[in-house]
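Bench notes, afternoon.
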Amino acid sequence: MAGLTLAYWCVLIAALLPMACALLAKGGAFRGRDNHDPRAWLARQSGWRARANAAQANGFEALPFFIGAVIIAHQLGAPQGRLDLLACAFVALRLAYITFYVADRPTARSLVWGLALLVNIAILLLGAR
């Protein structure tokens, strides 16, 4: 796997985070439920389960920009060390975002969301000369 940079591994991790949120939302409460319509079941949840489900949706929303930014930065020859660092920062911020969302900390969540957006923009512009 020599062709996969740390930034590309971060793309994989970021792609798995929404699924981790779904597992968190369903954890323990979904056992024995009919799996024919799990989205309807999730839509009826409240509290931290509903917030975990919302974090899942936001994770999928944030993913295309991150993937595109990393690919564009690679194509433009961005410095690999900086790209890797920023990609790791994005993943760390997304983990913090999920934590703050589930814990019902809206101000911290919004601040971290904004920082992740800025990091994404920095990744995109990293290869600009």
